[in-house]
Amino acid sequence: MGISVENVSKEFGSFTALDRVSVEIKTGSLVALLGPSGSGKSTLLRMIAGLDTPSSGQIFLSGQDTTHRSIQERNIGFVFQHYALFKHLTVRQNIAFALEIRKVPAEKVRPRVQELLQLIQLEGLGDRYPSQLSGGQRQRVALARSLATQPSVLLLDEPFGALDAKVRKDLRVWLRRLHHEVQVTTVFVTHDQEEAMEVADEIVVMNQGRIEQVGTPAELYDQPATPFVMSFIGPVNILPPPTARLFPGQNAGASQALFLRPHDVVISPTREDGMAPASVSRVVHMGREVQTELTLSDGASFTAVLPRDRFDQLQLQRNQQVFVKPKQARAFPQQHAAPIEATV
Ligand code: ADP
Ligand code: MG
């Protein structure tokens, strides 16, 4: 079931949480809503679910206007970060819950629950209680529970947010596989850009109640439409206008800042076309990569990251004079923000 959000706004009193948001989510796709805390992700998800209604605009599911239909009429599965399982029910009973409420006959419930237990790879744990599971296992059960009634849309609001980093990473891979098997239209909310890029085919980047850009992970990384997207999707140095003009080859306008990713810096011992002199002000070893801080002739500093073998070739040392240029960078109108150094 495809989802179509058309010009949806949501006001809470005088505060605009969503500002004329339009987005198309194709049937069977796995889409991430990505943005900082407070950008309106949960609000949008709640509107799609029918847990709340827009102040204006419309939401279509499978082409049907469902803006004012209840959650029960939408056939949607939902998992939240703290969507607790029923403590007094076993895993099997938790998964069966929605089916039993709908009075599905027991002989149909059993095989369905078994199938879901297989899907979440917890076949052996059906008789355990939630307290006897790890956090990651619990979220898998929550997912199985939301899939029991075969929803047409699955909405996940930071489902792995409360888990530790390693478990989260495993669950991302697991979720991709699960989506591949079930093929249900899935919208996944996260504030973690790495998580969005790893899980989703397409990412909707939100900021202050608006959509900044919609694209594949590669499109967002390589062709960010706005300074916000470029800064949010990966580390970036922002060189303010006067500094930007030390690199004339980049064609930054008089009032434009240059957005430069630390991985996109060319460093050379000799001056090449388009290069500016710089001194190495810091070297940080990070295993396979080395991070250096470079200071330009006007005193501005920025961060570059280079592969270990390139670093060894250059034999970079503190205070060494080198020449640098962007391999690629993007010019955007200067932000009000002060120049920042990327933290990798
Ligand atoms: P996100 O999920 O991206 O962190 P939310 O959608 O939860 O953001 O919230 C977006 C903005 O709307 C926030 O500033 C939040 O405080 C505000 N907001 C959300 N729900 C309500 C509400 N029921 N009443 C008032 N303000 C709300
Ligand atoms: Mg939220």
Short description, anyone?
The chain is α+β, with helices and mostly antiparallel strands. It folds into 2 domains: 3-231, P-loop containing nucleotide triphosphate hydrolases (Rossmann fold); 236-337, Nucleic acid-binding proteins (OB fold (Dihydrolipoamide Acetyltransferase, E2P), Beta Barrel). The protein has 10 helices and 18 strands.
Describe this structure in words.
The two termini are 39 Å apart. The chain has two domains: 3-231, P-loop containing nucleotide triphosphate hydrolases (Rossmann fold), CATH 3.40.50.300; 236-337, OB fold (Dihydrolipoamide Acetyltransferase, E2P). The strands form four sheets. It has a six-stranded mixed beta sheet, sandwiched between helices. A five-stranded antiparallel beta sheet has the order 13-17-14-15-16. Helices cover 28% and strands 32% of the residues. The protein is of the alpha+beta class and 344 residues long. Magnesium ion binds next to helix 1.
CATH class of the largest domain: Alpha Beta
Major beta-sheet overview = 6 strands, mixed
Query: CATH-wise, what's the superfamily of the largest domain?
Result: P-loop containing nucleotide triphosphate hydrolases
What integer is the average pLDDT?
Answer: 91
Radius of gyration: 24 Å
Domain unit count: 2
Small-molecule binders here are: adenosine-5'-diphosphate, magnesium ion
Shape: elongated
CATH topology of the largest domain: Rossmann fold
Strand order of the largest sheet: 6-7-8-3-9-10
The string of secondary-structure elements, in order, is EEEHEEEHHHEHEHEEHHEHEEEEEHEE
Class inferred from helices and paired strands: alpha+beta
